[in-house]
């Protein structure tokens, strides 16, 4: 009985404990879409979801542009990833530092190819500012007056849907 309690306590603590700070680096071997890449680490592909942003889906306006942009900046290049979380699909979520020192997450938002995903990075003042600047300047997806956030698009919401 006592051993079972200890085991349950350890399992609960493990399940609710925050992700330990981890930095990995490796060569990008695949770009799935604008905010999802695979990095080779010790011969193994590690799926990375970019923290705090959400790029348009592939079938959405600017979706293929976001993927092409991410590909141009990362494919077959060594990147450094500051892992911030693990998502429900088992991907590491992180901030991707490019070879030139710039942050991919920031570059996508600044270029109008991603939304600041405020729900997952509510305190990120840099993403907030880059998002507002791109929107104000009507850069990238912000040039479309009917731009739909990917999280709404995934739920089937379209430009002509009534706003409630």
Q: How would you characterize this protein structure?
A:
With 164 residues, the chain is of the alpha+beta class. 32% of the residues lie in helices and 27% in strands. Strands 1-2-3-6-5 form a five-stranded mixed barrel. The chain starts with a helix and ends in a 10-residue tail after the last helix. About 7% of the residues have low confidence.
Features:
alpha+beta, two-stranded antiparallel ribbon, 5 helices, 32% helix, globular
Instruction: List the uncertain runs.
Output: 6-17
Radius of gyration: 18 Å
Strand order of the largest sheet: 1-2-3-6-5
Sequence of secondary-structure elements = HEEEEHEEHEHH
How would the global form be characterised? globular
Helix content: 25-40%
Distance from N terminus to C terminus (CA atoms, Å) equals 53 Å
Helix-strand category: alpha+beta
Strand content: 25-35%
Biggest sheet details = 5 strands, mixed, barrel
Continuous helix count? 5
Task: Name the average pLDDT.
Answer: 89
**Total number of β-strand segments?**
7
Set out the fold topology.
Layout: H1 2-16, E1 22-33, E2 36-41, E3 44-50, E4 53-54, H2 63-74, E5 78-86, E6 92-97, H3 104-110, E7 115-116, H4 125-137, H5 150-154
Short note summarizing the structure:
With 164 residues, this protein is of the alpha+beta class.
